[in-house]
Design brief:
78 residues, mainly alpha, 2 strands
Amino acid sequence: MKTMTCNQLGGACDKEFQAETFAQIAEMSKKHGREMLEKEDPEHISAMNKMKELMQKPEDMQIWFDSKKQEFESLPED
């Protein structure tokens, strides 16, 4: 089990996500982002807009994704 925060994943808060795989962490982060969007949280909306910009360039998005996955993999087990 490893832990990453919303901030580490490009978000806007210190909420922690714990999972066995990066795919699981990414899914938790996306769910949290949708919840914050529904609450109209301005900090999370700003972070999501930055991610949308990144998604406009698939190669940049892949580099970001790969770096976050590598960061997850380098974390110690909880």
